[in-house]
Each structure stands twice: as structure tokens, then as C-alpha cells.
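Blinded run. Sample ID left blank on purpose so nobody reads anything into the name before looking at the predicted structure. Input follows.
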Amino acid sequence: MTPAPHTSDRPRDLVGIGIGPFNLSLAALAHPLTGLDTAFYDQRPAFSWHPGLLLDDATVQVPFLADLVTLVDPTSPWTFLNHLRARERLFPFYFSEHFHVRRTEYDAYCRWVAAHLPALHFGHQVDAVRWNPRRALFEVDFTQLDADGEAEALGRTPARNVVIGIGTEPHVPRPLTPLVHTPGALVIHSDDYLDHRDALLAAGHVTVVGTGQSGAEIFLDLLRHRPVGRERLHWLGRTDAFTPMEYSKLGLEHFTPDHTRYFHALAEPVRDRLVPAQWQLHKGIDAATLAAVHDELYRRTLGGGWPDAVLTPGVRVRTAGRLATGRVELHLEHTRQDTRSRLTTDAVVLATGHRPRPLDPLLTALAPHIRRDASQRPQVDEHFRLVLDPSVTGAVYVQNAETHTHGVGAPDLGLAAWRSAVVLNSLTGEETYPLPTRTAFTTFGLRPPERQVPPARRARQLTPWADGT
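Blinded prediction complete.
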């Protein structure tokens, strides 16, 4: 293979790995900084954001102001409102009075931004990151892919700093893993729902496993499109109830920089206890979705009788298997009753969530330099940098890989712009994007952490701002 066309021996100031909403936010805010040389790589052929879950009526669970840039720089050309203006949709949006936009609209907005940023390179799979002590630079190895996703060329980019935003991957509980790989069984993860929607609607009986937002949206979509009285749906999950997400105004202050700083300053054992206790802040179901499910079920009682739909929380799948007929048998256990039963179904949708993609395979060569906590997780400092051995003078930043150090706000879109600004301020050693000193009415702790101050810029880490060379 020959080197990729844009391979260069000239070091980049920042190389981004992965182009999801978080690194897209960083790229958008870095774009006007003409003295900053950046490149972002993603193996996909173009930007896409959970395409299998872009249901017509599903909304983003943060307000439109929580776009890629607005909460840091509302004058940026990459705001959601400017996207509407460019598409001549600003007045219709104004009259629609929607504070939460459709997921399809947010995806279209992100694709619009991605199409205008020259620093983004899709079809590039990053294979490894290593530190070259002789040059005091990172080396980022990648494979350029053709239109079919096949390897076309190899390349290497030297970088003074790296930011990793590789996102999450679908999670399948161990008892259900064999089903996903069983030929003939219609068992899919919710990420692939739209690709299999027609087959699911045609199936005799469908079971949705998972009582979070995705499970609720998929159950509602199936319910709306199946005949009254012949719905033949089952919705189950491990939580004790179909629990609404915490969405009070003061509750939402857990997704502020103030709470992030407070959380980061806590002792590691305290943080580890706090994260699972705050699950309802981000793993419950939007109250409007729950209301829509109930409304649809109620509508189906107007002619008399009850819909053929079973909704059972507090249930876990112990084991599962495919029958000779092609159907699926789920062995269930009710965790509170301590009872067990079997459920035979024609199709299963696993709305069982996502887990962060592990960083270790990408950073194998850096492993000896990474400082870890008592649970062998990478330590992440207040500026979202991995804590590395002092011999590594460059920085590795992470996006949405720091829940264990920064709390439940790590995967929240509402903190995307602020985190990007923290990274850029740290990178430049200047207050390139002024950040607020206070963001919440709640005072988290008796002694709030001091405001983060960008570290002094090292001259060798960045190209000079005056001439951009």
C-alpha cells in the first residue's frame, strides 16, 4: 500500500480520533483558530449519529441551545440556528416553538457542520498511537479506506497532541450474546432497529428488552404500527419500574461545569459509589415518551378490551436460545418475586444500551506511560487529559471516556461545547474561549473547587499564532 495523499511529516498541533458529536464540536470551535493545525479522522465514510434510532418523532433530550458550539460561542457560524438560517428554515422553527428538536434534525445539523470543516477526514481508520521520544511527538498510524470500506493506503501523521472521541458501542448482556450470532433468529440491538423495522413489524410476536429511552421509543413505534387487539408485544427490563428520567431544573444542574468540577475533586471511592446512584439522571425514560406509550395503550381500549401488550419491569433474562422452529425462547427471572418463567417470541430487540469503546487497543504502545487508578482505569485530569508519565510531553485528551473521573455529564450533549473549550484553552495555554465562573444555583459541596485555569503554553507544542507557520 502507498501512503495516503495527505500524509505529511509536518506535525499537527492536534489530531482527533473519531468524529462523533463531541469531536465535531471540538473541530468546529477549533476551526476559526487559524494558528492551530488540526486533523480529525474517522473510519466511517461520512458523519452519522445513531442512524438506526432516527425515528420520526424521537427528540434529542437536551434543548437546541446545547448544540456543538452555542453554550461557548453563540456567535459561531456553526450554531444550530445558523444551520436553520442557511436552510431557510429559521422562521418555521421559530413558529414551531420546539425547545427540543427531533433527532433526525440534530443529525442533519451535525452533517451540515461536518460538510463544511476541511479538517475532517472520513474513511480513515486509526490503527495505533505511539510516542516518539526522539522527536517528542505522537505518531498516529491510520489506514485509508475505499468506498467499500476496504484498505486502500497506509499513512502516518505526527502530532503534538491527540484527542480521542471514539464513542460507544452496543452492549449485549452475556445471556443474550449467543442469540445475536445465531443464524435464523431475528435478534437485533436497538442500534439496528430501522434496518430491521419491516421484518419486526411483520413478525408474529416481538419482545423488547430494556427499560431505558431506546426501549420506550422502539416499543412505542411498534405499538403504533401493529393492529389494534393483535399487537402481540412484550416489553421487559431489569429496572423495578418504567422510571421517568430526572428532568427538574435543579436536577439538571448535575450537567453543569460546576458539578463536573465538584465530582472530579471527590475521592475515587466516593466517585465510584456516586455514579451508579445517579442513574436516573440519564438512564430513565423521558416523561413525554412514557405519556405517549400510555396514551397509545389507552386509545386501544376505546373499543373495549385491552391491547395484547405485556409490560413487565423487574425482570432479567437468565438464558436464551433458538428453537427448532426459528422462534426464540427467553428464560426470565423476576428479581423481586424470585420467580421464573419462559417466554417464546418471534423476534427480540435488545435496547440494552451502550458501553464506551475501550481505549486500550488503540493506546497499546502508550500503555506503559498511562497512569491508572485503583481499578486500572486511566486517570484523567481536570482538563480532560490522560495522566501520563512526565517523559511524554504531549497531551492525550479524551471525550466521553471519563465518567469515572468527571461524572454523569461526560456523555451529555449539553456539556460538549464547554468540554471542547476546556480542551482548546488547555491546548493553547490561553483563555481562547472565556468560560463562566459559575453555572449552577446549586452549590456542590461546602468548599467548591476553584475554577480551572489553562496551563501555561509550551512554545514547542503549538505553531506560533502570529503567522500560523
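Unblinding after everyone has recorded impressions. The chain has twelve helices and 18 strands.
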